[in-house]
Amino acid sequence: MKKLIVAGVASLAILATPAVAGDVRFDGFPDLNSHLDKLIPSYSEKNPDTKVTYQMNNHGDHHKKLTTNLATGSGAGDVVAVDVGFIGSFINAGGFEDLSGADYGADALADSFVGYAWDQGKGADGKQYGIPIDIGPGVMYYRRDVLEAVGGDITAVIKDWDSYIEYGKKLKDKKVFLIADAADVAKTIVFTTVKPGEGYYFDAEGNSLITSERFVTAFSIAKQIRDEGLDGQIGAWTNEWYDGFKQGTVATQLSGAWLLGHLQNWMAPDTKGKWGASNLPNGIYGSWGGSFLAIPKQAKNKKEAWDFIKFLTTTSEAQISGLKTIGSFPVLKATYADSAFDEPIEFLAGQKARQLFAEVAQKVPAVAPKKGDLIAEDVVLNGALLEVLNDGKDIMAALKDAERLVKRRVK
Amino acid sequence: MSAIVESSTDSLSARGTVRRRAPDKRRVLKKRLMPWLFISPYLVLFIMFTAFPLGFSIFLSFHEWNPTSGLDGMNFVGLTHYADIITDPWLWKSLYNTVWLAIVAGVPQHLIAIPVAYLLVSVFKGALRHFYTATMFIPFITSTVAISLIFYTIYSGNSGILNQWLLALSDVPVIGALFAWVPDAMPIRWLSSSALIKPAIAFVVVWKYTGFNIVIYSAGFLTVSKDLYDAAEVDGCSAWQKFWHVALPMIRPFVFFALTLTIIGNLQLFEEPFVLTAGDSGGVAQSGLTASYYLYLAGWEWHQMGYATAVSWILFLFIAVITSVHFYFNGRKGMGGDR
Prior knowledge:
The structure holds two protein chains of two kinds. Chain A folds into two domains: 2-135 and 288-349, Periplasmic binding protein-like II (D-Maltodextrin-Binding Protein, domain 2, 3-Layer(aba) Sandwich); 137-286 and 367-409, Periplasmic binding protein-like II (D-Maltodextrin-Binding Protein, domain 2), CATH 3.40.190.10. Chain A contains 18 helices and nine strands. Chain A has helices at residues 2-6, 10-15, 32-46, 59-72, 84-91, 115-120, 144-149, 154-157, 161-173, 182-192, 213-227, 239-247, 259-267, 302-314, 316-326, 353-363, 373-391, 395-409; strands spanning 23-28, 51-56, 79-83, 131-143, 177-179, 250-256, 275-278, 287-294, 329-330. In chain A, strands 1, 2, 3, 4, 5, 6, 7, 8 and 9 form a nine-stranded mixed beta sheet that branches. In chain A, helix 3 (32-46) links the parallel strand 1 (23-28) and strand 2 (51-56). The radius of gyration of chain A is 22 Å and the shape is globular. The two termini of chain A are 39 Å apart. Residues 1-19 of chain A have low confidence and may be disordered. Chain B is mostly helical. Helix content of chain B is 76%, strand content 1%. In chain B, strands 1-2 form a two-stranded antiparallel sheet. The A-B interface holds A 11, 64, 66-68, 70-73, 89-90, 93-95, 232-235, 237-240, 243, 374-375, 378-379, 382-383, 386-387, 390-391, 393, 405, 408-409 and B 48, 66-71, 73, 84, 87-90, 152-153, 156-159, 187, 189, 192-194, 278, 280-281, 283-286, 297, 300-305.
């Protein structure tokens, strides 16, 4: 039935969502259901008048359903989750409640949250539309055994991109890839070296930054890694990718802290103790992923919805529970003093990695999402970057072509 | 007696006319409405899911609309989208890919299916023929996404079975010489180099749909009367001549039908390229971007629904033109059949 609704039968969705006063329906994607299963009982105890239910669809379908709900003005839950990748497109379109408004007063909460995540939930008008619920501080996971085999030292490896590439050259003799996909390096540099006040692809006035130095550097370093044969040309979320982690044929992976949960639960559980986490190379700070909560304008029970959002995002109980149940990293700064952050993580050979994650989280610079980000990402990072890496297209030519495409698409 | 009869008939007729007139109207109305009622389930569904969306998409193609902004978010932009399409490099790339795939993934299906169907019909009888036909039909009824995911793994560069087989072949004596180039070329990136994506997609399409065409052609060959073969034999035809001069001309309507389905199906190709390029905006240099894939990107990934509907109308025109060309050249002979 859920599938049917998702399949675009918006009218059915309308019929299927009767609103009862005081009830809150949460629309999201897995693993948020495991998270809510733990929390709803405790919330209901404190708020016996509010009944919280949820409707989960897989990540892609959830965002398509939400798009249809907003388009037709009906069928959305009272609280909706939005992935950071979609947030720019959703919050500037006017379908969500302005949480800075008097009814909500979200601005007063700003200081409790990790700064960059809070800013990502802001619309172009500076008002708050999305409240971050979890974040993905960017780190580098590396194989300790591989590093030892070449007698390396992790701080030396991540000193800058040159030392990172040097490490790759040593690994090449041992038939180990430095990284699964060189494109990840380019994406990391593009996302983490944004100048203050700029967006990822556009500056504050909406001018394109695609041919700027940042992109050229990012593409050049990735190309160097590819041309020297240091990467496995392995796409993320494929069997080959998991295989590289299991066999230790890939030495590092730049990723959000959340990769840890996947690695230890299903990707490579047998490699326990062989992994470590470090800062990203070249002293940069960035983030991968993260989710936001918003209240659609069409929601029936906004007051209760806001109350539930505050419970999920501003209480240590909910935030720490998320960390423990589904490995989602807290966005609430007050939680970083919790004892859970001092726990050694066995999978990472006893490293107290959560402290590293928390430190990274607070140093990630804020980058405001822009309207054309989704298009620019497809054209520049899925399009131009692959042409440069796989087809040997000239970097500047590829970026100029991409810029022209983006300009005519985003007006 | 007569009076009684008269009065009774009078009263009967009087009552009768009164009675008859009212139900008459109702009955007529009923008669008129009944057919509509009977076809209403279809009609309601047709209006809801076909007619309305069709009309709405024409309307939408003249508007700029980010669906997340709700129905009030539409801005009339006139023909802007259509003007943009003319100079959109990705759209032209996607149309080129679509035609390329329609031909390369289309022609082999028929070149394989016709002889195989002929052999099935002429060599195998009864249950055995049904068994073989059914076997070859299985790819067609298997989920396209499942098939594409399996091929994704087969094509995988480092651990895919295709590359492993090629490597193994290069070690085999005698024929190994033919594959001597393989070890140097390894790993072959079937799905991540712009030159190989389209052939890789085409192969999956051929594999999936050939069985369907075999079924059509088998049915076709079965309709050819045995008398014709006998007559041909009496006239001294060889087995090849019987196929070429008797069987093939007789199944022309089937060829026409199968070709039409292939043309329309291949021009709408979506799942195979989408899964094989991992949904990454059409693969390297958009070499796997088909027209349907592009309108999905524009509408659902970029939230430019107005532009996407304009692209879909261009795709419709494109299919209409190609099928009418096909109908013009092959239609008369195909539909009429010289039988």
